[in-house]
Amino acid sequence: MLQSQVLFVRDDEMAVLGSGNANGGCSLLHAAGIGYGASIGLDLPLAVRLLDKPSKRKLDDPDGLLPAVINAWLAGGFELPNGLSSDKLYWAVISQIPPRQGLKSSAATAIGALRALADSTKSEVSDEEFVAMASQAQIEANVSLTGSIDDAWACLTPGWKLIDPQANSIAEGVLFEGNGPKSEDWSVMVICRGERPKRPELEDFIPYAASYQNSLTALQEMNELVALTWNGRGTVAVMNDVQGKKITNDAILNGARAAGMSGSGNAIVVVAPKVSQPTCDRLLKLFENNSNINKVIETSFLSIVAEEEM
User: What is the Cα 187 distance to its own chain's centre?
Assistant: First the structure.
């Protein structure tokens, strides 16, 4: 997944051909668990610029995601800006999404880059097309087990969608959707640790299907916080993450309403009611005193209600 960096672009050095934004997110139901996936956006912004000359700072893209984005864009029937070839296009990424933590940095980068391409060519692109191309790019770059269609939706639009990745089309794959928890009601704490020691295989999820089924049931009842917790329980078991299990259990014991690993880790998302400031303060102190935690990011859900009220 793409290493984020802050880049300052001067107009006299290069032209910005197009710009695109996206956001990070967290898992409500890992798509490798029982074949259905759901993610929700978090207020972790990302911005991508498409340039006609390379930046002075080298962009770290070890998985080749951005070239894969261009390939997906061309395969979707779209053109590159100003008649330029793909080897004459360059990128700058400014991101607040910790990479390789399960916080959807790859999906966000793909969506942001696709939006920059659309902006540079003044192309009309539907949400479904953005999601399809982002999924294709992530599969080509080998940064996703399932194509991360639910992640792409979360990075593109507010709220959440339950996705069947095996559906005949992106639109048909949306089984149902929800607005998401109200951002003004909940404090979201993203617990960042070191990079995950391994990437799981699909067969690793099979023994823990019951946890993911419980998450699905909670989503059907529109209870996203219960879904987040059950999903996290399944994933820490898949990853055999004893430390992650302890962090989530301690969070619940100290007043969190939900806690669970996002993606395939290593980040853990903890949710507490904003109205209870003592609970939030107690949780933050708990995390600050844990030497296994690198940092805590305080943020919020990107819900449909929150967007309408802005």
Answer: 18
Of the listed ranges 3-7, 261-265, 273-277, 283-287, the one predicted with least confidence: 3-7
Q: Say if residues 236 and 244 touch (Cβ distance below 8 Å).
A: yes
Domain locations in the chain as residue ranges: 16-178, 186-309
Rounded Cα distance, 262 and 198, in Å: 15
Let me know how many helices (H) and strands (E) the chain has, helices first.
10, 9
Nearest to 91 by CA among 75, 69, 76: 69
Residue recorded with tokens 């149902």: 176
187-219: pLDDT as tens digits: 999 999 988 878 899 999 999 999 999 999 999
* Phi then psi dihedrals of residue 21, to 5 deg: -115, 160
The average pLDDT across 99-103 equals 93
Give the separation between CA 120 and CA 124, rounded to whole angstroms: 11
Are 197 and 189 in contact by the 8 Å Cβ rule? The answer is no
- 23-to-42, 48, 93, 140, 161 alpha-carbon distances in Å: 7, 11, 12, 21, 16
Q: Which residues does 7 contact at the CB level (< 8 Å), separation at least 6?
A: 49, 55, 57, 59, 92, 93, 94
CB 29 within 8 A of CB 225: no
Q: DSSP code of 2?
A: P
CATH class of the domain at 186-309: alpha beta
CA angle 191, 194, 199 (to 5 degrees): 105
d(CA 93, CA 48): 5
* Distance, CA of 1 to CA of 297 (rounded, Å): 19
Contact (CB, 8 A) for 91 and 120 = no
Nearest alpha-carbon partner for 86 in 75, 74, 102: 74
| Second CATH level (architecture) for the domain 16-178 | 2-Layer Sandwich (3.30)
